[in-house]
Design brief:
By secondary structure, the chain is mainly alpha-helical. It contains eleven helices and four strands.
Amino acid sequence: MNSLFESAFYFLSVLLLVPLWLLIYFTRKDLQQKLIRTGFIFGIASVILGQFFTQDYWNPPYLISPLFPFEDFLYGVFFGGLTTVIYQYIFRIKFLNTTTPSSRKMTLTLGILCIGVMFLFVNILNINSIYGQTACLVFVFVYTTIKRPDLIKHMLISGFAVTLFTFLWQKLVLVIYPNAVMDFWETEALQSIFFAGVPLEELLFAFAIGLGGAMYFEFSRGLKVG
């Protein structure tokens, strides 16, 4: 594998998601706003997490510099955005009717609490950041469940849909670059459990995104299945 490909590995891996992102964007107009807004939020979150927490989990190459993590933002935009709509796209679910929305203050509070959880896991308990991220999303799932039990079924199915989507994407990445996990993940810090080469932690994180992240857009805006 030549050095140019290795240096562009992260960027090229994210580009694999673009065709699906475009397909959903142009065929489901009702998901366009969610795809863009959640992707942007995930993009900002990915940059912040990459700068302060996730080096203990993986260290991918950056085309410019880790201090200018353009790939982290793209990863959030495309992967993060897709994880919030993939369930609705596959099962043709539409959320239309409006109920009482969650306050923006609560959304900000949850974000601050998640940063606190990450700091606790990584800097105090010395637990790998991927488990901290997973715990944050599970916390959001529990909170959403309490406030909107009507979303439980959707969140659970979304968890499995996002897990399958993540597995297929990462398996495709590994077909192109078989040594990616060994080269860029901090495997000594993981459980060394792999599914067709994909680390268990990636699938747990994906399931947590589907649980806690995918339906938060609907929860925050008070949307119900139409």
